[in-house]
Amino acid sequence: MTSLSPQSPPPSLSRIRIGSAPDSWGVWFPDDPLQVPWQRFLDEVADSGYEWIELGPYGYLPTDPSVLAEETARRGLKVSAGTVFTGLHHGVDVWDRTWAHVSDIAALTQAMGASHLVVIPSFWRDDKTGEVLEPSSLTAEQWRNLTSLTERLGREVRERYGLRIVVHPHADTHIDTEENVIRFLDGTDSSLVSLCLDTGHYAYCGGDSVKLIETYGSRIGYLHLKQVDPAVLAEVRAEGTPFGPAVAKGVMCEPPSGVPALGPVLEAAQGLGVDLFAIVEQDMYPCAADVPLPIARRTRAFLRSCGA
């Protein structure tokens, strides 16, 4: 009779700092009746075993740094990043409006001791209604606007607030597919612009996260951990469903039931030899208030089984 060898322990992912975000509690907007109150989010994210959080949409969590610092500290939480939305491909005419939006969030992010600002490009179709707002492809001039103004944003945010911008490829934006992500990376200064690789969005748009980490590892500054349901993804792709309604259909699913496999992604990221945040984001807007907590607990346990 052959004896069974003990199961190999998971790899040590000592360079990866795991966290979660309001997004995993169905929070997409600063104020929405379908969302849980911010106090409940903070209570439950701490209860799930996470130490790090993102700010989420500006205005959802308290914007007074002293209040937010007290509320997070007493729950044993720390902030990894703030998030901003930009439409820099529109050119210099939007710079002042963009900076007014960015500066408030960057100031709060800095005050909370975080060092990253996640930058999400504007959507070409509305994520709630699906209304087409502009063409899904950029002109050559718009690409130049996007890359040059993103570099400017990276420089200004670093010089004024000491933060590093990490640009988030996102479904229904102009930085989405492998082709567009690589074009963006090749067109921007690596000292000013890094990437927030969202594994779910990249898979949603046909990309391979492990390949991107192995090829452009020096540009990966931050991770969002997310999976897509392949069956639902095939359906929404076939039907041309906008991202918001696709989320409502369950295209983003609980790990480890979807793709990409997160273990190999985390191992590839660990292999870069740098400290990286890996923030869980399971898009679930809208969702019932009692849904997120059990999922968050199971997801945290799953990531521990991967060594994180």
TrEMBL record:
InterPro entries: IolE/XylAMocC-like, Xyl_isomerase-like_sf, Xyl_isomerase-like_TIM-brl. Pfam families: AP_endonuc_2. This is TIM barrel protein. Gene3D superfamilies: Divalent-metal-dependent TIM barrel enzymes. Residues 42-244 form the Xylose isomerase-like TIM barrel domain. The lineage of its organism: Bacteria, Bacillati, Actinomycetota, Actinomycetes, Kitasatosporales.
